[in-house]
Structures are given as C-alpha cells and as structure tokens.
C-alpha cells in the first residue's frame, strides 16, 4: 500500500463524508489478492472428520462472487458442557486471526473433547480476507457493526448464528491483528469516509489484549498474556501509558466498551471475553509465530475458563 498518512486520502473531499459514489469508487479499487477457497475453505473441509462443519450463511457480493460462511462445531456436542466461541477474520486483512483459529482447530481442539463444546468461526469476512481489507464491500467495518439490525451482512450472519447459544457461552475469544497498514491505509480511509481529519497514531510492537470494560476479568487476561509471552513478545505501553491511545490497565491489556462500540466480542453474555491483537509487522515476529500466538491465546483462554467456571 502507498503511505498516504501525511496527505489527503485519494477518495472523497476532505471534510465531507462519503456518499454512494465515493464508496463505489473505493470498492472498484479493491482487487482479489488471495483465495478464500484455497486458504480457508480447503482447510475447513479437511477438518470434517474431526468437527461438524456448519454453514451459517452466505454472502452474495454480485460480480465479486458468493461466499459461504462456515463454522466448526464440536462433534458429540454435549449440552452439559460449557460452550467456548472462537472467532477470526472479522477484519479480513488480519491473517493470523484466520490461520490461528484454523491452527488451533486442526492441532489443539481435540484436547478439549469431553471438556467443552467448541464453536469456531475462522473467517467471518471472506470478501475482505481475499482483498486484504478491513471493511466489507459497502465500506462498513464489521467490528463496529455487531448490533441489532446490523447493516453489515458479515456481522448480522454471525450474530444470528450465535444468538441461540448466547446465554450458554462461557468464553469468547476474538482473534485480531494490529498492523502497520492501520496507519498507512485503514485509519486514513476511515477519516476520509467519515469526513473527519486524520490524526496519526502509533502501532504497538507486540501482542496485547483488549478486554471488555463491562467484564474485564483481569486474571483471565493475564493468563492469556502469560501463555502468549512464551511465543512472542507482549507490547509495552507508549510513553503516555497507552496502547493505541487507550490507557493500559495491566501489562499488555487495554479496555473497550464492547457493546457500545458494536464489537464482535460483545455478542455473548460470556463471563470471559477478550480480543487478541498480534503485531505481524514486528521484526521480532513472522507469520508462523503470529499464528502460534493466536493458538496459544485460545488454549490459555480455554484452560482458564474451564478452571474457573
């Protein structure tokens, strides 16, 4: 991507929110860069022997194609067991969220048979996954649209799928990344779309968690960071005591109000919820390490939730 952080975004008029024409121009500039079928659906298909594969929706994006939405569900589901929800790819460009969820499913999930019911939605936003984008084709951020009557099809489909289990889910971990492209592309695009001035920020070097301010569960967050620290480094706070502008409440932990912001990790009533943030652009990390960090976070979250019902 071009570095446009210091100049006006190339779509729209500064100070004016985008209308349909600007959104259409933005969409026309997005091109397919990788294959959801090859990188995600093929791996899900390979797991049919270990999971029930459930199609919970399909996105029809016209000339861009149709995208079936799948989740992996524990085989031998037992209503007496707690339910754990793992989501990835809410932002399609955040690769380790998708691949980390699939890594956990393929390698680690069997250890929880008879201990928990697992529900894994590894790629919530497949159109964006293929285009290495944050938004969906309508220039909507799925992770601000997990709300009632959502205008975002990706968010609405997952909400409808999870709704029957909402009160039974004990743990939900949503797998994300913070990348250099947030500052190069996605935050400038957001400012342009909304007709607001772009305010440069910082990108933390390392892994961190975003807890729910309504359900912070500090010991749960600490257990995840402790496990991940064996795989990759935890992000330090900026000199002002913040990470991405939010106060650090514990090492490598910030808080958001999930439901007020329409975030994915706010869609259940689980006592234990968190959003991971891996930094794939660090010189101290590589893609495999980022996937491992996500899988480690899922394991640690599950172990803590099962030990503290």
From TrEMBL:
Gene3D superfamilies: Zn peptidases
GO MF, one example: zinc ion binding
Domain Peptidase M14 span(s) in chain numbering: 32-309
GO biological process: one example: proteolysis
UniProt family annotation: Belongs to the peptidase M14 family.
Protein name: Peptidase M14 domain-containing protein
UniProt source species: Thermomonas haemolytica
């Amino acid at each position: 991507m071009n570095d446009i952080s210091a100049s006006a975004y190339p779509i729209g008029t500064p100070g004016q929110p985008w209308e349909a024409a600007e959104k259409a121009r933005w969409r026309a500039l997005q091109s397919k860069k990788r294959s959801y079928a090859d990188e995600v659906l093929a791996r899900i298909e390979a797991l049919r022997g270990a999971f029930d594969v459930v199609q919970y929706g399909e996105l029809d994006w016209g000339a861009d194609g149709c995208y079936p939405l799948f989740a992996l569900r524990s085989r031998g589901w037992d209503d007496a067991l707690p339910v754990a929800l793992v989501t990835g790819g809410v932002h399609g460009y955040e690769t380790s969220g998708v691949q980390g969820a699939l890594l956990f499913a393929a390698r680690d999930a069997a250890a929880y048979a008879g201990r928990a019911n697992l529900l894994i939605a590894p790629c919530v936003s497949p159109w964006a996954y293929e285009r290495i984008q944050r938004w969906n084709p309508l220039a909507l951020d799925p992770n601000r649209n997990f709300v009632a009557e959502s205008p975002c099809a990706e968010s609405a489909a997952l909400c409808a799928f999870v709704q029957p289990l909402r009160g039974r889910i004990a743990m939900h971990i949503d797998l994300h990344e913070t990348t250099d492209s947030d500052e190069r592309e996605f935050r400038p695009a957001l400012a342009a779309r909304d007709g607001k001035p772009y305010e440069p920020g910082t990108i933390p070097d390392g892994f961190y968690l975003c807890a729910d301010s309504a359900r912070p569960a500090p010991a749960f967050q600490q257990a995840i960071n402790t496990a991940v620290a064996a795989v990759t480094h935890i992000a330090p706070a900026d000199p002002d005591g913040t990470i991405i502008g939010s106060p650090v409440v514990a090492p490598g932990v910030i808080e958001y109000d999930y439901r007020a912001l329409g975030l994915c990790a706010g869609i259940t009533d689980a006592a234990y919820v968190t959003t991971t943030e891996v930094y794939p652009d660090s010189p101290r990390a590589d893609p495999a390490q980022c996937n491992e960090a996500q899988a480690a976070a899922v394991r640690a979250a599950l172990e803590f939730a099962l030990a503290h019902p």
